[in-house]
Write a structure and sequence with these properties.
Enolase-like, domain 1, TIM Barrel, 3-stranded antiparallel beta sheet, 13 helices, about 40% helix
């Protein structure tokens, strides 16, 4: 079997409403579809997600495609080695491009063997993946109403974006806790917005409200500070932006900085590299959950295959999928409330709706995940000292 063609197709699917986090406001879920065709008639599907899709697509088209055309797509480890070495001088951005290729190669190999991608990753440990209710920065009243609606649809875990106003963040978490009761888990995500002092102060205020964990309170590079926050704040800590690959995972473990890895298949460089991180986490006693760049159906189901094949992933995972207006698949992924069942078909188990690919390939939206169209003068910042009002 040989690779005869590789197509890269940028698409943008609108969200049901704009979503605000500490770094900006998003209106759509963008991705670059990767379609690998072979001389035996099989096609593999992948999806690239990340911070700068035009650059990622350029890496695909100009750097990776020449390495792959004519190759045997079943030699995944060999091709990954070639691509890893090729992007060594721009490793972190290059991995986003490799991830889309890796997904398509796994889809192809599983289809050629008549099995599912999860079978290539270790076999089915679970056939359903639990996802949280994903909440963004809003008023306490609106967050509380949204939380109650999520729980009414079966969510047992809620994730709240925080990081622009510490006092308001505490009020928002308190309102949500009051709305959903004590049994629902609540986690918060600061997206690197806080300084060490701010993180400790805010999390000590939030701790009595019952926080499952706080995701990335400090800038990605401050591993030692993150470890100190973990020791001082009384709340478990998760790495997100600080988890950029296998080497950063090892550094976080060695520093005893975090309790949880928020793992992105895209940032890891695909399923193969993500699986390596999960196995390292298993050995270190670190929990894993799937993170989300607002993946479309292909990226979402790929993460599900990874979680389905692992002893880890006992906690609820992230997804923007429930916030999408539509998808580019022939059928939407089978969510039952906040639980998604793994498709039964070979490969990733999904197929493209070409009419939707064409339509959303022409959809225009504000693409960058950073910045806020409502306030063009505002600049997102990380690691900020954000004083809080006195409280009694």
């Amino acid at each position: 079997m040989r690779i005869t063609a590789i197509d890269t197709i940028p698409v943008r699917v609108p969200l049901t409403e704009p979503v605000k986090w500490s770094g900006g406001t998003r209106t759509a879920a963008p991705g670059v579809l990767v379609r690998i065709q072979t001389d035996e008639g099989l096609t593999g599907l992948g999806e690239c997600n990340g911070p700068t899709l035009p650059v990622i697509r350029t890496v695909l088209e100009e750097e990776l495609k020449p390495l792959l055309l004519g190759a045997d797509p079943r030699r995944i480890e060999f091709l990954l080695h070639k691509m890893d070495e090729h992007i060594v001088n721009y490793d972190e951005i290059g991995r986003y491009a490799i991830a889309g290729v890796d997904l398509a190669l796994h889809d192809l190999l599983a289809k050629s063997l008549g099995c599912r991608v999860c079978d290539l990753l270790g076999g089915v440990y679970r056939d359903r993946v639990i996802f949280n209710g994903y909440m963004f920065i809003d008023t306490p009243e609106r967050n509380a109403a949204t939380a109650a609606a999520f729980v009414g649809r079966g969510a047992s875990t809620l994730k709240m974006k925080v990081g622009r106003d510490p006092d308001l963040d505490v009020e928002r978490v308190r309102a949500v806790r009051q709305a959903v009761g004590d049994e629902v888990r609540i986690r918060v995500d600061a997206n690197m917005a806080w300084s060490e002092a701010t993180a400790i102060t805010v999390l000590r205020r939030m701790a009595p409200l019952g926080i499952e964990f706080c995701e990335q309170p400090l800038p990605w590079y401050d591993i030692e500070g993150t470890a100190r926050v973990r020791q001082a704040a009384g709340v478990p800590i998760a790495a997100d932006e600080g988890l950029t690959g296998i080497r950063s995972a090892l550094a976080l473990i060695q520093a005893r900085a975090v309790d949880v890895f928020v793992l992105y298949v895209s940032e890891a460089g695909g399923l193969s590299h993500a699986r390596d991180i999960v196995r390292l986490a298993d050995a270190a006693g670190v929990q894993c959950v799937l993170g989300t760049w607002a993946e479309l159906g292909i990226g979402t189901v790929a993460g599900m295959h990874l979680a389905a094949a692992s002893r880890n992933f006992q906690l609820a995972c992230d997804t923007h999928y429930l916030l999408l207006e539509d998808d580019i698949l022939t059928e939407l992924l089978p969510f039952d409330g906040h639980v998604a069942k793994l498709p039964a078909e070979p490969g990733l188990g999904v197929a493209l709706d070409e009419a939707k690919v064409d339509a959303y390939g022409r959809y225009e939206a504000h693409e960058t995940v950073f910045g806020d169209a409502d306030d063009p003068r505002w600049i997102p910042r990380i690691g900020m000292l954000q004083p809080m009002r006195p409280h009694g």
